[in-house]
TrEMBL record:
Source taxon at top rank: Bacteria
Location in the cell: Cytoplasm
EC id: 2.6.1.16
Active site: residue positions: K367
Lineage, broadest ranks: Bacteria, Bacillati, Actinomycetota, Actinomycetes, Micrococcales
Top EC class, one word: transferase
Protein name: Glutamine--fructose-6-phosphate aminotransferase [isomerizing]
Keyword Transferase: yes
Organism: Agromyces aureus
A Gene Ontology biological process term: protein N-linked glycosylation
Gene: glmS
Role of this protein: Catalyzes the first step in hexosamine metabolism, converting fructose-6P into glucosamine-6P using glutamine as a nitrogen source.
Keywords: Aminotransferase, Cytoplasm, Glutamine amidotransferase, Repeat, Transferase
GO molecular function per UniProt: carbohydrate derivative binding; glutamine-fructose-6-phosphate transaminase (isomerizing) activity
Length: 372
């Protein structure tokens, strides 16, 4: 009803706008005196967490992209190998699970059948399980050894938005907890990471402030038949999530690629006028990925691509080659996904609207897939 939407024209619009709160509420109470504090994990003793040799993340859809983002952070901080697998693939391939394996499930609803089956299977094989979930008392958390809830609030629109940023937030808190217990991150680095996380809600608000420009872009592009998304490092799963949002909401063919793969195939798709969103890594990143992505932009531009760059404030290197630049505030590289995803969500939502589609209930999709 209109009242439930709180004055917004759609749940999607409301939920996109609620993202600063989704992150802030997921952090609330979990950083105490500059230290990460997750009482929900008490059933896992520190010794047990030190003994984890491998983390397998299981999830479907947008939740799996949250897992892919978190893989970069958890491996960097806690020095534990992390693999991310779609629940339905994991369950049916005789995965190697031993007592050093921690299975981390991610599900907004906590009811996705494939993810539930993956968790049950993992437990039967002797794995310990933690669930990241947005719905109190749902089935997946009940079937898990521990649950870290995201506090995004109820998500009604079928395509996930605010739950995604809340999932990354919860996974980052978990990764920092693990890093502290395992002693893999210096106290200053840990404090810096927590401060970065606490600064995210206000920065998302800043990104949302540009939504009108993104909306204009979407309205110009309402007839577009295909859109490509490029990213690398944590920008790679964001590229895939941007593509997924566009498929789900606007029924447009879209693919996300790792920018480093460009020469191995995707560049053959570039023809004059092809729109390409590029998630540009920070020029301040230690791995020096920025010039590599700028050179990818030059390569596709030379072949006529229409480049929409998502780049941090002050990054002037992209200006000569991009048709449009959407700015995100400065953040440490691992935290950029929480900002870069926002204009991609807004773009898909606005394009759906420009095409006169039902943004809250796209055709053929369900909010929670409770059958196999
Ligand atoms: C459906 C929804 C997606 C969601 C996925 C996983 O496909 O349309 O938005 O990402 O299920 O749902 P879950 O509740 O497990 O996060």
């Amino acid at each position: 009803s209109a009242a439930e939407k709180g004055g917004w024209s759609s749940f999607m619009r409301k939920e996109v706008a609620e993202q600063p709160d989704a992150v802030a509420n997921t952090i609330r109470g979990r950083i105490v005196d500059g230290e990460v504090h997750i009482p929900e994990l008490e059933s896992f003793g520190d010794d047990e967490l030190r003994g984890v040799r491998r983390i397998t993340v299981v999830a479907c859809g947008t939740a799996s992209y949250a897992g892919q983002v978190a893989k970069y952070a958890i491996e960097q901080w806690a020095r534990v190998p992390v693999e991310v697998e779609l629940s339905h693939e994991f369950r049916y391939r005789e995965p190697v699970i031993d007592d050093g394996t921690l299975v981390l499930s991610i599900s907004q609803s906590g009811e996705t059948m494939d993810t539930l089956m993956a968790v049950k299977y993992a437990r039967e094989q002797g794995a310990r399980t933690i669930s990241i979930c947005n719905t109190q008392g749902a089935t997946i958390p009940r079937e898990s050894d521990a649950v870290v809830y995201t506090h995004a609030g109820p998500e009604v629109a079928v395509a996930s938005t605010k739950a995604f940023v809340a999932q990354i937030t919860a996974l980052y808190l978990f990764g920092l907890h693990l890093a502290r217990v395992r002693g893999t991150l210096a106290p200053e680095a840990l404090a810096d990471a927590l401060a970065e996380l606490q600064a995210i809600p206000a920065k998302i608000e800043t990104v949302l402030g540009q939504s009108e420009r993104v909306a204009e872009l979407a309205h110009w592009m309402a007839d577009t038949r295909s859109v490509l998304f490029l990213g690398r490092h944590v920008g790679f799963p964001i590229a895939m999530e941007g593509a997924l949002k566009l498929k789900e909401l606007a029924y447009i063919h879209a693919e996300g690629f790792a920018a480093g793969e460009l020469k191995h195939g995707p560049i053959a798709l570039i023809e004059p006028g092809q729109p390409v969103f590029v998630v540009v890594p920070s020029p301040r990143g230690s791995a020096n990925l920025h010039p590599k992505v700028v050179s990818n932009i030059q390569e596709i531009r030379a072949r006529g691509a229409r480049v929409i760059a998502i780049a941090e404030e002050g990054d002037a290197a992209v200006l000569p080659y991009a048709d449009e630049v959407i700015r995100i505030p400065l953040a440490a590289p691992l935290f950029e996904p929480l900002l870069a995803v926002v204009p991609l969500q807004v773009f898909a939502m606005e394009l759906s609207q420009a095409k006169g589609l039902d943004v809250d209930q796209p055709r053929n999709l369900a909010k929670s897939v409770t059958v196999e």
